C-alpha cells in the first residue's frame, strides 16, 4: 500500500498545521499557496509582487516534492479581481514558457481575506509530462 507523504518547503508554511503539499505515489497536490514574503510572512503590497511571490512558492514546493514545473498538470487560481490577470499571466509565462507544455488553469474571482489579492493550488504527477 502506498502511503501518504507530507511535503514541507523551506521558505513557505501555513499558519495552520498543514503541509505545503502531499504526495501519494506519483500524485502531488499542493495546499493553498499565497504571495507572502518568505522572510516576513507578509503579503506582497501589489498584485505584481504577490504574483511573483506566489510563483516563487510554487517553485519551492516543486523542489521540496522533487518535481519539475513540467510535472504540474492543473492549477487553480483565485483572485480578488480577475481583471488583473496580466500580473498573473506574466509569472505564468515565465514558469511555463512553452505553449505546447502548459498545465490547465482555472482562474476564479473570490473574496480573499487578510490582504490576499490572489492564491493558487496545483496538482502534479511526477513524470507526468513525459508519459
From TrEMBL:
InterPro entries for this protein: RutC-like_sf (IPR035959), YjgF/YER057c/UK114 (IPR006175)
The protein's name: Endoribonuclease L-PSP
Lineage of origin: Bacteria, Pseudomonadati, Pseudomonadota, Betaproteobacteria, Burkholderiales
Amino acid at each position: 500500500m502506498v502511503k501518504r507523504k507530507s511535503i514541507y518547503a523551506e521558505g513557505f508554511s501555513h499558519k495552520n498545521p498543514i503541509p505545503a503539499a502531499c504526495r501519494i505515489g506519483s500524485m502531488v497536490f499542493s495546499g493553498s499557496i499565497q504571495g507572502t514574503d518568505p522572510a516576513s510572512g507578509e503579503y506582497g503590497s501589489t498584485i505584481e509582487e504577490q504574483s511573483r511571490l506566489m510563483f516563487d512558492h510554487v517553485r519551492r514546493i516543486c523542489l521540496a516534492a522533487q518535481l519539475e514545473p513540467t510535472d504540474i498538470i492543473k492549477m487553480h487560481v483565485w483572485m480578488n479581481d480577475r481583471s488583473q490577470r496580466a500580473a498573473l499571466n506574466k509569472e505564468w509565462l515565465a514558469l511555463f514558457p512553452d505553449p505546447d507544455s502548459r498545465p490547465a488553469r482555472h482562474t476564479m474571482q473570490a473574496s480573499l481575506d487578510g490582504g490576499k489579492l490572489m492564491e493558487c493550488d496545483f496538482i502534479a504527477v511526477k513524470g507526468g509530462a513525459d508519459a
